[in-house]
Design a protein that fits this description.
By secondary structure, this protein is an alpha/beta fold. The protein contains twelve helices and 13 strands. The chain has three domains: 171 residues, Peroxisomal Thiolase, Chain A, domain 1, CATH 3.40.47; 124 residues, 3-Layer(aba) Sandwich (Peroxisomal Thiolase, Chain A, domain 1), CATH 3.40.47; 38 residues, no CATH class. Strands 1-7-6-4-5 form a five-stranded mixed sheet, with helices on both faces. A four-stranded mixed sheet has the order 8-13-12-11, with helices on both faces. The radius of gyration is 20 Å and the shape is globular. It starts with a strand and ends with a strand.
Length: 349
Amino acid sequence: MPRSKIAGIGKYVPERVVTNQDLTQYMDTDDQWILERTGIKERRYAHRTEETTTTMAVEAAKIAIERAGTTAQEIDFIVFATLSPDYYFPGCGVMLQRAMKMKEVGALDVRNQCSGFLYAISVADQFIKSGMYKNILVVGSEKHSFGLDFSTRGRNISVIFGDGAGAVVLQPTEKTDQGILSTHLHSDGESAEILAMYNPGTHANHWGEKNYADFDEAPIAQMFMSHKMIDKAQNFPFMDGQSVFKKAVVKFPEVIMEALLANGYQSTDLNMLIPHQANLRISQFVQQKLKLTEDQVYNNIQQYGNTTAASVPIALCEAWEKGKIKEGDLVCLAAFGSGFTWASALLKW
């Protein structure tokens, strides 16, 4: 059975840089407050009307495809991870297929938020191993900036997130010392609502307005979205930051060690850990917990913020471009996020 390898990788981040100081125009915050809590100095925001989750994905995909030595016409499957699609439906996978003028290949959309790219990698890996596909485009792309609450009320969430896209092309390899060694996926929905965006949704407003009398018209027509929901800012993401942090610092090290031990390695064997860029404080905690050096962990949340499903491929691409990942290196990718879901992938570059 062949392994799958990352044959090409690319990233795209919007031109617009938004600093912590820029955000003080909209909310009661300051550079020190944001730095202390998240480690973020700046983030990128997509153009409001000219860039979408799909258009950013296209730019990252073009680079990954070229570096893989293939073409868009040779891609035979797409796996697209995002929590911020262009439309409620259809998903971004088909939008990407159309934009890149690909053949009528399958397109799968993955909704696992921060863990989305790793779930997508795992799915693609199985297809490569089975021999069903030979050139799979795996994408993580997010346009968060259009859906954040830019007020003091929403600052705990809004200061964290940024926009961007990353992509890889997976291909089979017969080399025994190259490719994805294993992937590990987990979930626990017990506390799903402590990091969620409730509205719009099909939950009949179970987690939002509970008094039908508050709806503008008949409840049967107003459960999906109402003016009252908007007026009360119930159409923005919600996060209990402390609870998320407590869970993340347990599950992150666990899933990393799961991948290492499954393949007979220890943390000291790692050449590079690419954690999902959720919060610099979480990454630093994981680094200390696993006794990793600064050279063994790559973080770029300081410049890009949390780009959710895009954060792992953006960081992986940037680390590789800077020469921090070389052929033969043992690399671990890991993520934790809403759901809760968490995952890891161990590979030989």
